[in-house]
Every structure is written in structure tokens, then in C-alpha cells.
Amino acid sequence: MALRKLSYAFLVISIILVFFNTNSLAESHLFSRKLSKKSLGLKRQKLSHLHFYFHDILSGKNPTAVPVARSSMTNTSATFFGQVMMMDDPLTIGPELTSKPVGKAQGIYASASQSDISFLMVLNFAFSEGKHNGSNLSVLGRNSIFSGVREMPIVGGSGLFRFARGYAKAKTHQINFNTGDAVVEYNVYVFHY
């Protein structure tokens, strides 16, 4: 009888141990878990305003934006529909290309409208100046280039701009219709930690 109670107790303890081991093993392989901001070193959220000029140069010996794809419609479309451009455009403090550089706009833009000249913009503002050196902001949005002011979302960032969100306001400062070269003023408002 005592042996039977001991065997029963051993069996119950074994089942409990297997349950807890299986449960803790399953929890250690969870897909996601909650974290505190503090565990990632995140402090108070800030709102920053950045102001710079974007130089999109299509002409000359060293253009900063080049076509990488075209549809058969591009040549007959008034909106250049289907054309895709790769860019590595300088960002500067002032509207002159010779003003102080603050980074690059690197990515692609594609003519995505058959009715007006509107680009799908997929790019990073890669900063190289001051405390922002090595930090990036990512833009993904629609740029209807002949609108007075265009607004595009900031969808993320890295470096000082981790967990960034906000918007970029673009305003054409100058455009050369013969060459396609353009200078665009940007005001960027971004929340980040």
C-alpha cells in the first residue's frame, strides 16, 4: 500500500515536471514578446525638424539620377509612365549645390501615374553631418511634382532616428525643363527617440 502511494506520488510529480518543462520550453521559443522601452535604451520621444535641399541632376557627365527601367509606354506617355530612376542625390544646407553637404538621398523614384507626373518615391535620407552622421530616414510615398507642396510619409529610420515616424514636405525650388535637373526644398518633421 505504501509502495503504491509512493508510485502514485512519483507519477504525479513526473507529470507535473514534464508539464512545466514542456510549458517553459514552449515559452522560450515564442514568436514575439513585449519589451520595455528601457530595455532598448529608449528615453523620451523627441520631435525634430530638418531642413535641407535635394539636388536631382539628370544632365552632364556625372548625373546623380539615372534611368534603370522603362516601359514600352514611357516614350509615348506625357507623364513618363513606367520609367524608373535610381538616385544618389546630394543633400545640402542651401539651394546651391556648392553649399555645405549634409547627406545623400539614395533610392528610386518611378513614374506611377498615367494622368499626371507623380512619382512613387522609395528612398533613404542618409545623413553625413554632425550628430546625425550615419543616421537615416526612410521615405515611401507619392510625389506629385507639379503640386506646390508635396507631403510624403517618413516610415522609419536608423541611428539617431530609430523608430522614426513623421512626414517630409517637398517644394520645388528650381527646375530646368531642358535638362530635367531640379532642386527641391525639404522640411522634414519626425518623431524619434
TrEMBL record:
Major location category of this protein: secreted
Keyword set, alphabetical order: Apoplast, Secreted
Annotated TM spans: none
GO biological process terms, semicolon-separated: phenylpropanoid biosynthetic process
Subunit structure, interactors included: Homodimer.
Record-level GO cellular component terms: apoplast
Subcellular location: Secreted, Extracellular space, Apoplast
Function summary: Dirigent proteins impart stereoselectivity on the phenoxy radical-coupling reaction, yielding optically active lignans from two molecules of coniferyl alcohol in the biosynthesis of lignans, flavonolignans, and alkaloids and thus plays a central role in plant secondary metabolism.
Species lineage: Eukaryota, Viridiplantae, Streptophyta, Embryophyta, Tracheophyta
Gene3D superfamilies from the UniProt entry: Allene oxide cyclase-like
Family: Belongs to the plant dirigent protein family.
Annotated protein name in UniProt: Dirigent protein
A Pfam family reported for this protein in Swiss-Prot or TrEMBL: Dirigent
